[in-house]
Amino acid sequence: MKKPETISPSKALSGETLPNGPGAAAILAAGIGSAALGILALANDAFPAINKLLIFYGPSGGLSGVSTMAVVIWLVAWFILARRWATAAVPMARVNLISFALLAVGILLTFPPFMDLLQGK
Amino acid sequence: MEISLRDLLTVLHGMGFGALFMLAFAGAVAELYRISAPAAAILPTPGAQRLLRWYLIAMVVLAWAAVLSGTYMVYPWYRAVPPAGTTDLSLYPKFLLNSSPDTSAWHSLGMEWKEHVAWLAPIAITMVAYVTAKYGAGLTRPRHLRTAVMAFVVVAFAATGVAGAFGAFLNKYAPVRGGPAIHIIQVQERE
Predict the structure, then answer these.
(1) Cβ within 8 Å, pair A27-B138
(2) Which end of chain B is more exposed for a tag (fewer CB within 10 A), N or C?
(3) What is the complex's ipTM, to 2 decimals?
């Protein structure tokens, strides 16, 4: 009978034996949260009706809703992905590529001149 | 020597949380690079991994404290609307900046960028802390985890830099003032 594979203490300590799914879930969720922040910031700026909806705390205006909703989207995405990929080995190169693209969306859409450009201001 | 409550809380937001978070990046980047570099010769000890884990958790707390205090404490004072007919706008920083074409871009570019981009930092650093705690030195195998962690650290640093720099400039041109005065040191006047 084949002996079960044992994990050396150094391998266990280094995290080599863990599946990359949980890490990939956290990385992709951070990208999704960043993109959500940018998209919500743009929507808040461009559409007065959305701005009204995003005022969760009057004194902070739309920023309260933009940041709260981005954090909620990030955490929900993280929760869902972490459950799906808890023991999975996922293609990290593709996850990174998508995460960086989403992060870039977040960075660009929080930059006021780019926001203004998209709105034709 | 006295300081207004709003001044004190703005300093706590900017220097207490934001600047401390920014300073902590140097240690985080050096240690993350050291443990996860492909050519890392020595596996970090459990003690060293534990220290890095707590260091990153402290950064996560600072990042969230900075954005939450900024959004819900300082920002409402910044954007407060002056009553009709107010001519002295010193207690209304946003309106003070917008009252002159020489300073309005500090709001339209500086504050508008700062208020949103700053929120990227806690999201990014929370992910970095989680992945580092989960994988430890295993970040380097496969290298993609390490690439993502380092990229998000750099973005968090840049976002904090933008927010911090504009925060400092904004507080120079239109400081958040007001609230009760807090006496720190009472100096007796000599006759």
Answers:
(1) no
(2) C
(3) 0.90
Residue B184 corresponds to which tokens in the numbers above? 């720190």
Residues B68, B63, B161, CA angle at the centre, nearest 5°?
A: 105
Which candidate, B64, B93, B67, places its Cα nearest to that of B170? B93
Contact between B28 and B160 (Cβ < 8 Å):
no
Dihedral sign (CA A88, A69, A105, A107): negative
Side-chain half-sphere exposure of A115, counting CA atoms within 13 A: 23
What are B52's two structure tokens? 């890095």
A74 in a domain, yes or no?
Answer: yes
- Residue A20 domain-assigned? no
User: In total, how many domains does chain A have?
Assistant: 1
- In A, residues 38-67, which contact B (CB 8 Å cutoff)? 38, 41, 57, 59-61, 63-64, 66-67
Residue A83 lies in a domain: yes
Instruction: Output the six-digit token pair for B117.
Output: 């981009």
Contacts with B130 from chain A: Cβ below 8 Å: 26
Return the sign of the alpha-carbon dihedral for residues A42, A46, A50, A51.
positive
